[in-house]
Write a structure and sequence with these properties.
Blueprint lengths: L3 E7 L4 H15 L3 E8 L7 E7 L12 H11 L10 E6 L11 E7 L8 H4 L6 H12 L4 H13 L16 H15 L6 H18 L5 E5 L2 E3 L2 E3 L2 E5 L1 H9 L2 H4 E7 L9 E6 L6 E8 L4 H14 L13 E4 L3 H10 L4 E4 L1 H9 L7 H15 L4 H13 L1 H5 L1 H8 L2
Parallel strand pairs: 10-13, 13-14
Antiparallel strand pairs: 1-5, 2-3, 3-4, 4-5, 6-9, 7-8, 9-12, 10-11, 11-12
Helix pairs in contact: 4-5, 4-6, 5-6, 10-11, 12-13, 13-14
Zinc ion binds next to loops.
């Protein structure tokens, strides 16, 4: 490694121009010289002195402060970074009166790094460039998540004419940097993740959405969660997009059979999301979405009632209510939906019967589970009412069913 000291003068005349020069110096040399101190000159011979150190040396001032304890811990973790590098850069801004041959800034460079500079091990510590930050913000604006943005950005870099930049954090931020950038971008563009400001942002989004899409069948509603004087109002977010409206209007199956599936664990608060959908020749199609803060029958009823109000006039192919609804194995969901759509038959998928039978806490003998499942299948697949009555009679009188009263009552509830 070449070590040398050199001094020279440059044609700059202000603090701002000096800072630009330092940025360009770092960019070009791939070194990272950071400001240690800036001191105004006391006499008339110097306007200001700028002292910079290599960022592979820990900051000297405030070594005994509390905040530096964190720095010391970081030092241990990233001990490859802090090599106590002695390299320095000093710039002195001279007053215009002392300007000599147009030069107002004298520079002393002590280029004696105790580490390699242009190697991956050093480049991975360089700070992020403004251009890479901007590129990532653009990707987030186009709907990328941190993971997909990182993949897209890195792939583009690999196929560029400078693939070696992939090792340089300045041009290729680390995964943790991308998440930090995303959090900053989200805070500025979408809002905070928690608290009242979250709801304020959501309300703004709903208002904008209604204004923009109302004419083509898009509607949304939000009710804030509140708990005042013992009266709890659940969070309700109901959405019917223009696509959902078209499915209501044009898909015949939407009046025959509807599926309602609750999912959760999508975000920090674990709010359940109910997706209302129907089947079609092309597969499942959505009819509406409700997000609530609870899964009780009352909350589900409130949520579905609000969602019904978001639906177009000719909802469920003009019938206003579905004939049959297939749901998860949830009593609360069943009760809530019965309150909302009185005339609809609430059905349970045979998948849930199987799950119930396989659940050890229900005490069904392993050898008898398949026989019980076959009995249920015969009921479900009965082609006529008479066949169903006959099969149900067999079902009721079967010794296994009589033996398991919990199974009998579970079936009878549906
Ligand atoms: Zn250094």
């Amino acid at each position: 490694m070449n070590s040398y000291n050199c001094s020279f003068k440059i044609e700059l005349d202000s603090e701002e121009s000096i800072k630009k020069w330092v940025t360009a110096f770092n960019e070009k040399s791939k070194e990272t010289m950071v400001y240690e101190t800036c001191r105004s000159g006391k006499g008339k011979k110097v306007v200001k002195n700028f002292y910079l150190r290599c960022h592979h040396k820990q900051r000297q001032s405030g070594m005994h402060t509390k905040s530096n304890k964190k720095l010391k811990t970081t030092h241990k973790i990233h001990n490859n970074k802090h090599t106590n590098c002695p390299a320095q850069l000093m710039l002195t801004l001279l007053p215009p009166a002392t300007k000599l041959n147009g030069f107002c800034v004298s520079v002393l460079l002590k280029h004696n790094h105790n580490h390699l500079v242009q190697v991956a091990d050093a480049l991975r510590f360089r700070p992020l460039s403004e251009q890479s930050k901007k590129d990532y913000y653009d990707l987030f604006s186009h709907g990328h998540s941190p993971a997909t943005a990182h993949l897209e950005y890195e792939t583009n870099l690999m196929y560029s004419d400078k693939p070696d930049l992939i090792a340089d954090r300045n041009c290729n931020p680390k995964v943790s940097d991308v998440y930090n950038l995303f959090n900053k971008w989200r805070k500025c563009n979408i809002g905070v993740r928690t608290g009242k400001y979250l709801f304020a942002e959501l309300e703004k989004c709903v208002a904008v959405y209604n204004e923009e899409y109302n004419d083509i069948g898009g509607k949304a509603f939000i009710q804030r969660y509140s708990d005042c004087n013992g009266k709890e109002e659940p969070l309700i977010l109901a959405v019917c997009t223009p696509l959902f409206s078209r499915v209501h209007r044009h898909i015949l199956q939407s009046k025959e059979l509807v599926f309602i599936d609750a999912s959760s664990s999508f975000e920090d608060f674990n709010n359940p999301m109910f997706v209302v959908s129907t089947s079609s020749a092309a597969g499942g199609l959505p009819l509406g979405i409700v997000v609530t803060s609870a899964e009780s029958a009352t909350v589900i009823h409130q949520g579905m009632t609000k969602l019904s109000q978001m639906f177009p006039e000719d909802a469920f192919y003009g019938s206003g209510s579905p004939k049959k609804i297939i749901i998860d194995d949830s009593m609360a969901e069943r009760d809530g939906l019965r309150k909302t759509w009185h005339t609809a038959d609430i059905l349970l998928c045979t998948f849930h019967f199987r799950r119930w039978l396989l659940n050890v806490k229900h005490g069904i003998d392993c050898d008898e589970r398949q026989i019980l499942m076959n009995l249920v299948r015969k009921l479900v697949y009965a082609k006529t009412e008479a066949e169903l009555i006959t099969e149900y009679s067999h079902f009721e009188n079967h010794p296994f069913v009589k033996n398991y009263k919990n199974f009998n009552s579970y079936i009878a509830n549906y």
